[in-house]
Design a protein that fits this description.
The complex is a heterotrimer. By secondary structure, chain A is mainly alpha-helical. Helix content of chain A is 76%, strand content 1%. Chain A has a two-stranded antiparallel sheet with strand order 1-2. In chain A, strand 1 and strand 2 form a beta hairpin. In chain A, helix 4 packs parallel to helix 7, helix 5 packs antiparallel against helix 7 and helix 7 runs antiparallel to helix 10. Chain B has a two-stranded antiparallel sheet. Chain C contains twelve helices and 14 strands. In chain C, helix 5 packs across helix 6. The two termini of chain C are 34 Å apart. The chains are: A mainly alpha, B mainly alpha, C alpha/beta. At the A-B interface, helix 1, helix 4, helix 5, helix 6 and helix 7 of A face helix 1, helix 3, helix 4, helix 5 and helix 6 of B.
Chain lengths: 313, 351, 316
């Protein structure tokens, strides 16, 4: 029976396609596995002749020392704190910029803007989100620091370094603002319209509706977007590498330079030291720290977002 | 007459005009202020965008000229150009697209259309959303560490100017290839991993937007699963997929961090494969074979290098700004294409 | 439980000797209260009967002596180009219940929403004519909708508790109006919950989330929340249509209690409900007000043919 035969050919052919596509999908799991293996095998335990970072530098030194001097031989000190402080200082400044701006934009677009206004606001924000990181680095170094921060702090008699965490934080904040705006707008819009109507019917002004009903109802989702933006700021590389400078100092002064984890990794990869030297291997220890921190924040954010969705969907 | 005292009901004397009530006036003012604060914050982002673009164009005025597009790197900022970066980025993005689009769209099709809800599939889905949040520089470490053995293998295979022993019978002169560290192939593979999660997620969304009635109708007509996907679902989702994929690939164009990690050149005075003009693609096509294995630089990497040039007279600022203008113009064109596709699709197809 | 007190008539074909909630849901039970004395039940024909009113609603009340709480004159309403209300003129006497009935899409909900200008929130709507609420024309541009809505409360078809505690839900209106004193709020919350007949059920868990209440409790909470803004008029848009019979019964009884002090306008697609709870009934059809009059008259001897056809179930 010819029809059955064709059917079988179809099936065999489809099974092949199915498996090919499955392999594509499974590649992403493989990628995660590869990242973890690469980081662990260079930072924690290296098979073969290579010596991993933590086999040479104790975890205790890594977590307790307050100096980061990645030198080979004598005088090398590997305490993660200066890099951590630099990273979080930049991410903190970025949050100060992006949280109000992003939330304000989200509220404006979902609660106030005319549909036609939103129609062009959203793509323009997308453009802002699509500008490469190096461009923001250039903007921080060549515009924000010399033309905004220096004159501003000169008025109060303070000096701003050429490389400083503040300018880096500001541009990273600008970069992640569209992320907060679009994610928060999504969750705010998913608050049922009936809640808004009910609030209006109780004699609320628009402010009451937004600030007392809609935003509290969407709060967990908004919080998740903040966390996601924070994690993005922690992992942000090029803008920070350009604007914050390369001096790993344990400081909370945003007017001075600092080095972030990502900044150090870029710096280390362009250095001339040998591939298995300790200064080079320290990159993996920093990488694993960065990976764990961003993954942790992302998981937390995803968990909060799922709980938000359970309430309304 | 109007009220029965027993019920305590008294006629109201309230006025609905806000003029009389100070509290209402204050609340309405508060509401108005809040609206303006939100509007201000929204438009502040746009103002920043405007300032950013203006300051870059302003800075670029000293160098931006046709020669900037056709010159190689030079220590003299007046003659320094971006040619190598343009070609490097072009090849990198082309190869990245070749890797990431089939695999990314294929994954999305599998996850949306074929996968049953098994443990493994759930692992893949959870993993995907987390992978999207991994900083790009971490992919750089992966590229640097994991893809190098691959290059060593290729080096052994082609071993420079010599030949390869095929089946132990002939010594065939295959290709005269030199395989460099930090070549375009490694760059493209790394970059594909960086953008893969976004490609997959964007394609998934486009596939999800196709109404299931189309699938049902096709299956009911006797089409197989794959025929349904290939002839109905993918064509219907194509505009959405194209938009998402173009935007993701344009992200690869601006990324520098993973490239820095795998050790691409920051200063290059040679284009990959020696191809310096589109004409050579036709006159000397064999050169293209060596492109994937050649060392290269990319526009964002060059911009990083120029921005960081320790130059007391700031002469490289104009060069960096010019590079940014070129990069942004290319990105803008790509984004505009994506938006046109999206707008066209929105007009043509409405579910 | 109120439901137990409700005397039910099991439909003979169901063959049940006991009545469970599932039977009600399955339609095997006619859950309408059985008339106390069927002799007082006037009939216009064998197909329609007017059930007794709920306690507190005296359908023989002469509302002509009441002042007008709402007086609508020649109202026309448009969604864009599309006109949905035509020359509506309607008087709502204070301290009474007015029911708006009519088939779906007849404009009764739209009309209700113009009474506290909720339609302002919808783009591209236009309203002409006059609508006097306690003597003031609320169509006037000088009218402040926030004040108006405090004065004219609204309860929606779907209960819409805010995702906050029970206490915060009731205290919301006074809070946004500027009341900060905690003990004043606590007193107010208690009295409103009492008026809404919910206090005994929630007194021990005022701080728990309102989302955890049952549908009927949520709807009573929404009524309590509306009462807390101290309105004079309460608009109800099918307040019981999403509720089970027992909860519906409680809401109806609540309306009977509230109408001593509040003016209530209720939209309902359930004619039995309209006849039980209202003093006055207005019948809408295709955007026109066909007939308005005392409930007993509308249900026993309507003057319009369309009204009679509708309430006897010939269409709609």
């Amino acid at each position: 029976m010819p029809s059955w035969a064709t059917q079988r050919i179809h099936r065999r052919h489809e099974t092949f396609i199915r498996w090919t596509l499955f392999v594509c999908a499974a590649l992403s799991v493989l990628t995660t596995a590869a990242i973890i293996i690469v980081l662990l095998s260079n930072a924690v335990y290296a098979p073969g002749a290579k010596v991993a970072f933590f086999e040479r530098v104790s975890l205790r030194e890594f977590l307790t020392s307050t100096h980061w001097k990645p030198r080979d031989g004598e005088g090398g000190q590997f305490g993660i704190w200066p890099l951590l402080s630099g990273t979080f200082l930049v991410a903190f400044v970025a949050s100060l910029v992006s949280v109000p701006a992003g939330l304000g934009a989200a509220i404006y677009m979902s609660e106030y803007a005319h549909p036609r206004e939103r129609e062009w606001l959203k793509p323009v924000l997308e453009i802002l989100a699509g500008i490469p990181s190096v461009v923001f680095g250039f903007f921080a170094l060549k515009f924000i620091t010399p033309w905004v921060l220096k004159p501003l702090f000169h008025l109060v008699g303070m000096d701003v370094s050429v490389f400083n965490s503040l300018s880096a934080g500001i541009v990273v904040g600008i970069m992640v603002t569209p992320l907060i705006a679009s994610l928060s707008e999504d969750v705010i819009r998913s608050v049922p319209g009936s809640l808004r109507e009910a609030a209006f019917a109780l004699g609320s002004t628009r402010f009451d509706v937004s600030a007392r009903v809609v935003v509290p109802a969407a709060l967990s989702g908004i919080l998740a977007s903040f966390l996601l933006a924070f994690s993005r700021a922690v992992g942000e590389t090029m803008a920070v590498a350009i604007a914050a400078g390369g001096s790993p100092l344990l400081t909370v002064n945003p007017l001075r330079g600092s080095q972030t984890m990502t900044g150090f990794m870029v710096h280390a990869s362009t250095g001339d030291s040998a591939a298995d030297s300790i200064s080079r291997m320290s990159m993996y220890a920093v990488g694993i720290t960065l990976f764990v921190i961003t993954l942790g924040i992302n998981l937390l954010s995803g968990w909060i977002l799922r709980r938000f969705r359970e309430v309304y969907q | 007459m109007s009220a029965s005292p027993a019920s305590g009901y008294v006629r109201s004397s309230v006025s609905f005009s806000s003029g009389g009530d100070a509290l209402i006036r204050r609340r309405l003012l508060m509401s108005l202020i809040f609206q303006w604060v939100c509007r201000l914050l929204t438009y502040a982002s746009l103002a920043v965008l405007a300032v950013l673009l203006t300051s870059i164009v302003w800075n670029s005025l000293g160098r931006l000229s046709p020669s900037f597009l056709t010159n190689h790197y030079s220590v003299n900022p007046v003659r320094c150009g971006i040619l190598a970066g343009i070609w490097g980025t072009f090849w990198l993005v082309l190869l990245t697209a070749c890797f990431s689009i089939p695999v990314g769209v294929g994954s999305a099709v599998y996850l949306e259309e074929l996968a049953r809800d098994s443990f493994l599939v759930r692992v893949i889905k959870v993993n995907l959303s987390n992978l999207a949040g991994v900083p790009s520089i971490v992919y750089g470490i992966l590229g640097l560490t994991a893809f190098r053995p691959l290059m060593l293998f290729l080096q052994a295979l082609f071993d420079g100017r010599h030949a390869v022993n095929v089946m132990g019978l002939f010594r065939v002169r295959l290709l005269k290839l030199e395989i460099f560290d930090g070549n375009i192939l490694i760059g493209a593979m790394t970059m594909s991993l960086v953008i893969m999660p976004t490609v997959i997620i964007a394609s998934q969304e486009a596939l999800r937007a196709v109404p299931s009635s189309i699938r049902m109708a096709s299956l009911a007509l006797g089409a197989t699963r794959w025929q349904t996907i290939w002839r109905q679902v993918i064509p219907a989702a194509l505009p959405g997929i194209a938009t998402g994929v173009i935007l993701s690939v344009s992200r690869a164009m601006g990324e520098a961090a993973p490239l820095m990690m795998i050790g691409v050149l920051t200063v290059a005075s040679m284009c990959p494969g020696g191809i310096e003009s589109p004409l050579q693609l036709i006159t000397d096509p064999t050169r293209m074979l060596s492109v994937p294995f050649d060392q290269f630089t990319a526009m964002p990497v060059e911009i990083y290098d120029w921005s960081k040039q320790p130059d007391p007279e700031d002469r490289f600022t104009a060069v960096a700004a010019s590079g940014i203008v070129v990069l942004l113009v290319v990105l803008l064109m790509i984004n505009a294409t994506a938006m046109i596709i999206r707008a066209k699709a929105a007009r043509g197809l409405k579910w | 439980m109120a439901f137990a007190a409700l005397r039910c008539r099991v439909l003979p074909e169901a063959g049940l000797d006991r009545c469970e909630m599932s039977d009600v849901a399955a339609g095997r039970v006619d859950w309408r209260p059985v008339a106390e004395d069927s002799s007082s039940m006037p009939e216009i024909n064998s197909r329609i009967s007017v059930p007794p009113s709920v306690r507190g609603v005296d359908r023989n009340l002469d509302t002509s002596s009441h002042a007008a709480a709402i007086d609508v004159r020649k109202m026309n309403f448009y969604y864009g180009e599309h006109q949905v209300l035509f020359d509506i003129s309607l008087m709502v006497p204070e301290r009474s219940v007015t029911a708006l009935i009519g088939p779906s899409g007849c404009g009764k909900s739209t009309f209700l929403r113009t009474l506290n200008r909720m339609n302002d929130l919808v783009e591209g709507t236009k309203c002409t004519g006059e609508c006097l609420v306690e003597g003031q024309n609320i169509m006037d541009p000088s009218v402040d909708v926030v004040l108006l809505r405090k004065h004219v409360g609204m309860v929606f078809q779907k209960s819409t508790p805010f995702p906050k505690s029970i206490f915060e839900n009731v205290a919301y209106g006074p809070r946004v109006a500027g009341e900060k004193n905690r003990s004043v709020l606590a007193d107010l919350v208690e009295s409103c919950l009492r008026k809404a007949a919910l206090w005994d059920e929630v007194r021990d868990r005022l701080q728990t989330s309102a989302m955890a209440l049952s549908g009927g409790q949520q709807q009573r909470l929404c009524i309590a929340r509306t009462l807390a803004t101290n309105p004079r008029i309460i608009l109800m848009d099918e307040p019981a249509s999403a509720l089970d019979p027992a909860s519906t019964d409680r809401i109806e009884n609540l309306i009977g209690e509230l109408c001593a002090n509040y003016t209530i306008v209720i939209v309902t697609h359930n004619m039995q409900q309209a006849s039980r709870v209202s003093h006055q009934t207005a019948f809408f059809f295709k955007g026109h007000l066909v007939e308005c009059g005392p409930t007993m008259k509308i249900f026993t001897s309507p003057s319009e043919k369309q009204t009679e056809d509708y309430i006897t179930g010939r269409f709609g």
